[in-house]
Amino acid sequence: MSGWVSLSRASEPISASRMEKGVASSYRMPVRLEVGWQIAEPRGVPGARVSLWADLVLPAVEVCMSLRTRGLAPGPPKEDVNRYVCLVPLGTRVARRERRVCAAPPGSSLTMRVADDSGRPLTTDCPVGPTDGSTRHANLTFTTPVDVYAWVAPSVGARAQLAVRGELSFKRGISLQFSAHAASGLNSPPMTSPTQVRLVGPGATLFSVERKLDEGCPAEAWVTAGFVDEWGHELSDRCLLGRYSLP
After folding, report:
1. ∠101-99-135 over CA atoms, to 5°?
2. Based on the structure, what is the number of domains in the chain?
3. Within 13 Å of residue 213, how many CA atoms lie on the same side as its CB?
4. Which domain holds residue 99?
5. pLDDT tens, 216-229?
6. How far apart are CA 154 and CA 225, in angstroms?
7. Are 130 and 205 in contact (CB under 8 A)?
8. Cα–Cα distance between 155 and 136 in angstroms, integer?
9. What is the enclosing helix (H) or strand (E) of 93?
10. pLDDT tens digits, 160-205
11. How far is CA 110 from each of CA 114, 129, 148, 193, 194, rounded to the nearest angstrom?
């Protein structure tokens, strides 16, 4: 018999192939926003013209698979084999470039902050600065809920292989909000409705290309899988995918 030889779990993520078994997790991912901007006064239009470049910088997400062969082959028990596959490389960037005119009454001060698609602020207000055309930069950090998935399938090549693919989805949208405040202080209420610049929409998904692992993969093993970050910290509980057997 070739492939998975144990029963599927009803709670697995849906896969396009019956040969794949999946693991999923939901958690709050720490994100860094690198943002630069220029503010100038638009000609003939009241407000402020914003030229914006923003990058969401993501941490790494890896799937860790433990391959257990004890009791499946004759001879003394062997140590479990741990294999790691990177789904989201460290420093992955989601870029946005935008030009927008923001409502800004004369004498007001502009601020910006990160918010989700419900309008809930994810960072505190950051002063934008005067409309003199100079370039400014800021780094803002926050967390946002994500779903991460990985699918594993045994396959036969020159030797035993495991094919792994995955994806990461943003559960909520992320936007930059620009607001005009009275010059008397940033703590005053906004003078106008915030101008929204969407950085990523709800459900936006990053896909990981399929990787095939053959080095160190036994011909038969129990597979347990979960997710870790770049430091090896667990992002989810490990779950048993099943046992595979390859000729």
Report:
1. 100
2. 1
3. 21
4. 3-245
5. 788 888 899 999 99
6. 14
7. no
8. 52
9. strand 93-102
10. 688 999 999 999 999 999 887 766 555 665 656 788 899 999 999 9
11. 14, 7, 36, 12, 10
